[in-house]
């Protein structure tokens, strides 16, 4: 309440049967109402944690193999730690090599800078054919807009056919992500596949 209580009265108040009226020293009146669904009967269960907590778990006995492994870890802990660090370094190296390979063949997000302008391109595909979609995300990482940006897809025309024109973006504002979908159809009767290269340039590109 935050103030001195002068009087309390419990009983019926209006349509509510269980009400507690409290009068405070400032002249305020507070009303506390018991919910109609409240269960006021004493609970048969004891307070505190559940009874199941006192029941011991059926933990299986330690096998001979378990004890041998525990002893091995105690005696060879330094060697096992060195092997773990070695495997971790190999995994990091393999991850870095894979990422470099993805960058070299264009499977990873790439950033290109020229003349103070920087552009990021992310390419994914959607579908299993014969018609699928190339989903592009272009982002201008520079501080000034890029004007008249062309996106050209280069592929083997014997295998693929572009179902729409190569997209052109009039303005690339800084830090905004532009999403472009390009539909491509596989026209090869045997369902062959080949590399699709994406070129992004404007009149200032060299």
How is this structure best described in words?
- The chain contains two helices and eleven strands, in the order E-E-E-H-H-E-E-E-E-E-E-E-E.
- By secondary structure, the chain is α+β, with helices and mostly antiparallel strands.
- The strands form three sheets. A five-stranded antiparallel beta sheet has the order 4-5-6-10-8, with no helix packed on it.
- It starts with a strand and ends in a 5-residue tail after the last strand.
- It has helices at residues 64-75, 77-105; strands spanning 5-13, 16-24, 29-33, 110-114, 117-126, 131-140, 146-154, 160-162, 168-172, 177-186, 197-201.
- A hairpin with a 2-residue loop joins strand 1 and strand 2.
- The model has no long low-confidence stretch (mean pLDDT 84).
SSE blueprint:
Layout: E1 5-13, E2 16-24, E3 29-33, H1 64-75, H2 77-105, E4 110-114, E5 117-126, E6 131-140, E7 146-154, E8 160-162, E9 168-172, E10 177-186, E11 197-201
Antiparallel strand pairs: 1-2, 2-3, 4-5, 5-6, 6-10, 7-9, 7-11, 8-10
Sheet with the most strands, sense and barrel status: 5 strands, antiparallel
| Total count of strands | 11
Order of helices and strands: EEEHHEEEEEEEE
Strand content: 35-45%
Helical/strand content category:
alpha+beta
Oligomer: single chain
The backbone outline, from C-alpha atoms, is: extended
Q: Specify Rg, calculated over alpha carbons.
A: 36 Å
- Total helices: the number is 2
Mean residue pLDDT: 84
Kindly report how far apart the N and C termini lie: 77 Å
Strand neighbour order, sheet with most strands:
4-5-6-10-8
Low-pLDDT residue spans: none
Helix-residue proportion: 10-25%
